[in-house]
Amino acid sequence: MDRMRVLNGHIRSEDVTDDGSSPLQIAPTLATPGYEGFQHAQTMASFPPAAHDVFRFDDLLTQEERDIRYRTRAFMEKEVAPVIADYWEHAAFPFELVPRMAKLNLGGATIKGYGCPGQSVLGTAMAVIEIARVDASMSTFIMVHNSLAMLTIGLLASEEQKRELLPDMASLKKIGAWGLTEPSNGSDASALQSTARKVEGGWVLNGRKRWIGNATFADIIVIWARSSETKQVNAFIVRKGMKGLRTSKIENKIALRCVQNADIFLDDCFVPDSARLPGVNSFKDTNKVLAISRIMVAWQPVGICAGVFDMCVRYVGEREQFGAPLGSFQLVQEKLARMLGNIQAMFLMCWRLSKLYEEGKMTHELASKTKAWTTLRGRETVALGRELLGGNGIVADFLVAKAFGDMEAIYTYEGTYEVNALVAGRGITGKAAFKAAPSRQPKYVQA
Fold first, then answer.
1. Residue 24: its pLDDT value, please?
2. Hey, where are the domains in the chain?
């Protein structure tokens, strides 16, 4: 409990029970390499070696990017893999891992200065895939913090706001969330209904947000709301504990269970003038942030599928049926070959997208096409992994079941597959097809 309290009071006093425990705190059961009653294959507690990089993609990276990749991999395999399945099972966030993750120096990612590392887009992507390889929830946590909350501040905040907020966020002493999606507006985000009314000395925010990652414990939430005066979308810094701000955890998810997604309720929430981000003057400004975050979401399935493939390669070598290792059967090898092909193609597509962004040549249509395609292929790959593990394919301790569920969330967030495919289609045809064609009533014809 002491370590939990260290994280800036993320657990309130009213959350603590009479015996001093907290409903958010679990005693993680260290997953054993093999169950007592099943000694035929190792669980994810002893994470399998990487077997997925057969095309030597490391040769495409700089030394700095390789260093980010391998120190992140070592942390995830040693510190996270042995305990994360229990957190996932309990839908609890592993707060105790955050101070240790901070030592990786990933906070702020591509932002330069203010205590941030100023990594390349590819360096940031390497961290994302190595985190996702072990646990997609943790990769979503850091992506929301870095590529949404911090990046919005880094690109669109005032110099004073940057100096105040970014250093503590870079060290993960303060955690960020990003509030755009609403209950009535998911894919059609530009139709958001939350309002910001100008009053003396600040703004009064009203509205609802949904599916906001990190929101139950975030210190800083970037809220997007429409100005009552100009009808344009603005962005505001809302801090934990502000009057009129309430969050409620979304329960019973089957995916990204460690991520604390929340409904946000804004009821006459006053924020001072200093809380408004001066670089946001219309909804179009969200694209400055989503350009990078969509790249990172496209990379997430690469990491998830790499972990599933690595687990499957080890599993089919350990598990025997009909007197032979599973890996000796033709159908098993065909599935592995298909999985590996998907991973190589997904990596190359994301790598090229990242390079195009760095060269200033990426378009939103290309980003959407890549995100749609990697999540589609990711779905196929984790499904093949689930087949290869048989009954153990539905047990979270063997990684694949957890990854199978997590892919469902990534297939949908940051634009559903269908919406991203339509953005790509707009790039191909030059015609937008987001709105249904108007219905035409057939003329009455007398027989």
1. 41
2. 48-170, 176-283, 286-429
